[in-house]
Structures are given as structure tokens and as C-alpha cells.
Please model this.
Amino acid sequence: MRVAICGAGDMGERHFAAFSAIDGVKVAAVSDVDEGKARRVASGGAKVYPSSEEMIEKSGVDCVSIATPTAFHARLAIQALGKGMHVFCEKPMARTVEEGEAMAKAAGKSGKVLAIGYSTRFNGAYMTARDMIRAGKLGKPGTIRTSRCATQEADWHGDIAGNGGAVFELMTHDLDWLAWTLGPVERVFARGLAKGKARVDRDYALAVIRFGSGTIAHLEASFAEMDGFHCAFEAAGDAGLLSYDSRRATTLEARLVTPDGLRRLSEAPQGQKPLEKEITAFVAAVQDGRGYAIPADEALVALRLAAAVEKSIETGQPVMP
Ligand SMILES: NC(=O)c1ccc[n+]([C@@H]2O[C@H](COP(=O)([O-])OP(=O)(O)OC[C@H]3O[C@@H](n4cnc5c(N)ncnc54)[C@H](O)[C@@H]3O)[C@@H](O)[C@H]2O)c1
Model:
């Protein structure tokens, strides 16, 4: 199986390593508008393209993996599906619901796999918590608090108009995980710094969501974090409590001075990381239909919720999605 990767930033580099580690899979091409970045990531004879569109047109690969900023997801996914290629696209699915729906339609028409990279579904703590909640181990879930906070590292993180800020970049994981775990949402109410703005550096948003089941969730997403990334949740039911904080999980942290500047690496020393599990499952879904690829219709749920959060921030009113 030959794969082409669009975008050679943090995630593109990880996609390259995760695909390359799978037997029978070869990353044949890498694109980045910054050609030097693509060249730094590409190894083992992978061809470098400055244009993703040209790479999709000419590389003749079986699969395209999209790790560009969100603004480009829909356009590149639809082009690749139209060429008969399978697509693994990073979360969030797209910037707007209309774009996401067009991606789902293109996948349906092509009959190829379109998977959206909600890696939190492959994170052991979130998977176990979901299983416990759904098995009734907490009794009736009353409240769930989630938090996802990062230092703003890329300029595009502040481009609300193009990429959606903290809601689309960070909160989207928790919206996806909560809806996957708890089912339909009844009401969304949110506040955020992005209200009325096309650009906000160090964006911040808070949302309160009521589920059809009666559970209330409180979600925090922040690009105003001092020191790197962390995510956490607390869930409370009438029979128990659960909590997770990535800052307490055992990981090996490294800060390395490289010719490209300071780079932060975070390694979980044991077992496969969520992204590796996710990409292994995507490859299995493409090869024999047995892997778990998060389908477009499920990813659309999170996209519609992010759009509802955005609308509530804009209007100051509750939104029924
Ligand atoms: N699953 C996760 O946990 C997770 C974590 C971080 C980011 N992401 C997602 O991955 C995607 C990329 O994020 P990142 O952190 O790697 O960003 P990044 O800024 O590190 O890298 C993005 C790269 O894309 C390049 N680029 C921009 N437009 C392009 C185009 N049209 N074609 C090719 N390259 C282009 C940029 O030059 C940059 O090198 C985003 O959608 C983000 O939401 C997912």
C-alpha cells in the first residue's frame, strides 16, 4: 500500500512514522507548502511536492493522509476521494458542516474509506472511561468535566475564520468523545474569546452541554496555556467517580535543541500510542475491512456540535443542535 502525506508539520511527521512502521505500507510522497519541511520529513525515497493538489494528481498512491491545517481538509479529501484514493484526514473533519457533508458525500460516491483522526477514541484512558460509563459502573452519569489546554504554537491556531480556533482544534476531541460515549445532545451553551473575531491569539472557550440522557458536561478548551499540552476529565455518577489528567500519566518528556529550533517530544514508553493504533486500524480497514476507521457520519456529529458551540458563542444564546 502506497501512501502520500499532505502537510509535514507536527502531525505529518508522526503520520510518516506511523504509516512507515506498518509492514507492507510505504510512504511514497510528502507535500508541504513549505518544501523544506516536506524534505525534512520525507525519507526512504519518498518524493517531495510543494503542492498537495499536484501530489494527489500525480503520485498514483492508494491512500492520502491529510495533516494540514483544518482549512484545507475538505478540498484535499474530496480531490483524493475523486481520484479513487482512500483518505485518512486529521480531526476536525472540516471547518464547516457543509464542507464535512461534501466530504461524506464524496466518500459515499467513491466507495473508498474516509476516516477522521479522532485519536482520543484510541487513547486508553478515554476508551476505558467510556467502557466503564456505558457499562453503568458509575451508575447514572450526572456530570462530566473535560479540559484540553495547549500553548498556541502555530500562527494558524489564532485564525478563527479559517480554522475555528480552540473550539475546532481542541474542544472537538471532547465533543466527539462525549457524544460517542453519551449519545445525542439536547442543548449547547458557550462563551468564548472568538466572539465576533476573525483572529484571536491564545483563544479560550467554555461550553456547557446537556445530553438527552440528562447528563451535563462542562468543556474547557484553551490555547492560553503556559507550558505545552494537557487534557483531563472528571466524570461523576450516583455510583462512582472517574478522573484522568494527562499531566499525571507516566510519559517521557524531551526538549531537544535541533537545527530547526527547540522541539518537544512526548513519549509513552509502553505500548502503542493513540495515533499509531489509529493508523494501524485505518490500514486494516483499507486492506480487509476489519480495522476501525472513524466514519464520516460519526465525525459529522462532532462537527455539528462544534458549529453549535461556535453559534452559541456568536449569539450568546443556547443552541439546540
Ligand atoms: N489527532 C490529534 O491529536 C491532533 C493533534 C494535533 C493536530 N492535529 C490536527 O492535525 C492537523 C495538522 O496539525 P499540526 O499540529 O501538524 O500543524 P502544523 O502547523 O505543525 O503543521 C501543518 C503543516 O501543514 C503545512 N501546510 C499548510 N497548508 C498546506 C497545504 N495546502 N498542503 C500541504 N501542506 C500545507 C504547513 O506548512 C505545516 O507544515 C490539523 O488538522 C490539526 O487539527 C491532530
Notes: The chain has a mean pLDDT of 93. The pocket of nicotinamide-adenine-dinucleotide is lined by residues 6-12, 31-34, 37, 52, 67-70, 72, 90-91, 117, 119, 154, 169 (CB under 6 Å). The radius of gyration is 19 Å.
